[in-house]
Specification:
- This protein has 241 residues and is an alpha+beta fold.
- It has a single domain, classed as Aminopeptidase.
- It has eight helices and eight strands; from the N terminus they run E-H-H-E-E-H-H-E-H-E-H-E-E-E-H-H.
- Strands 1, 2, 3, 4, 5, 6, 7 and 8 form an eight-stranded mixed β-sheet that branches.
Length: 241
């Protein structure tokens, strides 16, 4: 059963509230996680996403009785731009040519995945660019509600996969929950948008995702997440040993 403690709103570029959602992204994702640069601080936004502004939409969670000025969680989802092709998606564009620590640009995208995306209709792809939850509300269910809202839109509008750059611990978490539906598509990009990140793809049409969504909507998803947490902790212990 879906949680009734908060509501989710989809806000696309041009909608009332887009700027407020962008401000919330800056605060909840950038500042709270120390992902911001001096340019971000001066502009009061995540500058790296400016080229994707018109194709961005935010999914924002609010307390059920809270005003729209008080978001508690947010995700930026970037859509296909016919004028840009695969460069519509920041993970794919940047993984093909990324400069770490001021060094020469290098390709971090695996060649087989580069070939795969070259054969893929880009209109079936979306980019899960940022996701963040206010510290005071970091409990199970909020991100899942946002993901569920994006899954509904993706399925309705012909999107079957999401590209994403996940910080290493979060990639391990999702990989434990969805061992086959989530795949790394390249090597770790050092300090990408503030942290070492793994470029990846999420196949939302994969049976693992479909089953998780079904269980989430039925209210029986927590056991899966608990088992994943134990698996990630076990893997971390083995690596430290």
């Amino acid at each position: 059963m879906l949680n009734q403690e908060f509501r989710v709103q989809r806000i696309a570029w041009g909608d009332a509230g887009f700027r407020s959602a962008r401000d919330a992204e800056f605060r909840l994702f950038g500042v709270a996680n120390s992902f911001v640069t001096d340019k971000d601080l001066a502009a009061h936004e995540m500058v790296i996403y400016r080229p994707y502004e018109k194709k961005s939409e935010f999914y924002v969670a609010y307390g059920v009785d809270a005003p729209a000025t008080s978001p508690i969680a947010i995700i930026r989802f970037i859509r296909f731009d016919p004028e840009r092709g695969l460069d519509s998606f920041c993970t794919l564009k940047d993984a093909r040519s990324y400069s770490a620590d001021g060094g020469a640009p290098a390709c971090y995208l695996d060649l087989q995945w580069d070939s795969f995306f070259g054969r893929t209709d880009p209109s079936t792809i979306g980019e899960l660019a940022t996701q963040a939850v206010d510290v005071a509300h970091r409990r199970g269910g909020i991100v899942e509600h946002l993901w569920d809202a994006i899954v509904v839109v993706s399925e309705r509008e012909g999107v079957s996969m999401w590209t994403v750059a996940l910080v290493v611990p979060l990639f391990r978490w999702y990989k434990a929950v969805f061992p086959n539906a989530i795949q790394a598509i390249g090597r770790v990009m050092p300090q990408y948008v503030g942290a070492d990140s793994i470029p990846a793809v999420v196949r939302i049409d994969h049976p693992e995702i479909k089953e998780y969504v079904r269980r989430f909507r039925a209210g029986s998803w927590k056991g899966i997440a608990t088992r994943a947490c134990r698996l990630v902790a076990s893997q971390a212990t083995e690596q430290e040993a």
